[in-house]
Amino acid sequence: MTNDSGIDSDSAIHSDSGIDSDSGIYNGMPATVLHGATWHKSARSGPQGNCVEFAEIEPGGRVAVRNSRDPQGPALVYTRAEIRALIDGARDGDFDHLIR
C-alpha cells in the first residue's frame, strides 16, 4: 500500500517503536546484524574511506546506509522511495551548498 507521499507503508518501519515487527530491522541497528547485506560505495570514494555505503536489505525493498569508517556502527534504514528522492535530489544539485 502506498501513502500520499509515495512511500510503501506496508514495508515502512513502525514509527512508535522504530522496529519493523515483521523483520526486526530498525534504524540505528548495528550494520553487522544485517546478515547477507552486500555493501557498495561510490567509485568516487577516496582510499581513506570517507564515504557512505549502501546495501539492499530486501529485494526491491528497503536500503541500509552506513559510514564506511565505522562498518560495525549503526545502519540507517530507508525505503526505496526515500533513497530515490535522495539520489534524485543529489543529481539535481539540491545539496551542492553542503560541499562548497
Features:
single chain; alpha+beta; disordered N terminus
Give a short summary of the structure.
The chain has 100 residues and is α+β, with helices and mostly antiparallel strands.
How would the blueprint of this fold be written?
Blueprint lengths: L28 E2 L9 E2 L10 E5 L6 E5 L6 E5 L1 H12 L9
Q: Can you put this structure into words, describing what you see?
A:
The structure is a single chain. This protein is an alpha+beta fold and 100 residues long. It has one domain. The protein contains one helix and five strands, in the order βββββα. It has one helix spanning 80-91; strands spanning 29-30, 40-41, 52-56, 63-67, 74-78. It has a five-stranded antiparallel β-sheet with strand order 1-5-4-3-2. The chain starts with 28 loop residues before the first strand and ends in a 9-residue tail after the last helix. 11% of the residues are buried.
Assign an overall shape: globular
Radius of gyration: 14 Å
- Strand coverage percent: 15-25%
**Element-level helix/strand string:** EEEEEH
Flag low-confidence runs: 1-17
* First and last CA, distance: 40 Å
Backbone structural class: alpha+beta
